[in-house]
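Here is one chain, start to finish.
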Amino acid sequence: MWAYWAMFLLPASVALACSAPARTTEPSSARLAGSNSAWVWVWLSITLLIGFRYAVGGDWGSYILLLDDIRGQELVDVLLRKDPGYKLLNWVSAELGWGIYGVNLTCGALFATGLVVFCRRQPMPWLALTVAVPYLLIVVAMGYSRQGVGVGLAMLGLVALSKGSVRGFVAWVLLAATFHGTAIILLPISALAASQNRFWTAVWVTVVAAVAYSVLLAKDVESLYANYVDAGLQSEGALVRLLMNAAPAAVLLILRSRFQFDESEKRLWMLFAMISLALLGAFYVTSASTALDRLALYMIPLQLAVFANVPYIFERSDKEQDVLTSDNSYLQQNFEMPPVGSANAVFIIAVVLLYYGSIQFVWLNFGANSMWWLPYRFYPLEF
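Its structure:
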């Protein structure tokens, strides 16, 4: 269990050290250069912890069986199967003799890339990273390999979309859909969030979504519907996880005028907020909680974006920030952290960390399925 707490406490300690000065939509080149080494270590650590986990996650046995099933098959047959990106990765790893660890290391690297790039886009990247740990990193990336990669690649798409690149978003989401077809549901967001040429964007995105649906998801919809809707498959803890998305959604909607998002970002996260609240409402009118739970995974980036911006609502004046800047130069240069701001901002950061620390504590100690994650075992140390 200590490994999971190290993942949480290390970024939390840096996030708590400082609050925020005036917000910037993108870190300056100087701040990025000064913190590259720290984030390289973050990326490498996440990749190795995900890639070399041993018998960790509820679907571990299923992934082993899938790898054995694909071993020796023809490449063409592999590419025609469900989730061809993930199946291709298994085929390559089997052919090269890398086994499940080749698959998991690659999945870990893809997820870590998406998470790191997305966090560094936020005004408080270390707080965003800490928010991601209890559920997105530990449960999703270490438990649901395919959808973990899907969310990681989708975060790269969200960064592209926040910069105004609809094509970049669509490209990343399509790649994500080759690992888990449900990622296609994100494509309409690009048309709704577009700030220019919205009509033509809606037209070509609709065409792309229709083609992607027919190629990657259509043949599996009947079985997905039967399993998740007709069967009324229930997911323990689904309500809690839906509420985890609904909480930042409510904060954003209530205090939207105080968030300093630019116009494209505001439109994007407002859409995420409304979808998150709609999924929570659907929980009370349908018995298919597992379907809602799986769809809600793609809304998790909302938690990172909102809580990494909340402290700016309580920032100090520019004059007060200038006085405090010199006291924290090491943190600024090495951890991409702004100087200490108001007491209110520090308090808000502490509350966010306590909230997510409590979620991790409860899940690790009382979660119905946490037994599949405990203890954390690292493959190189098993022999």
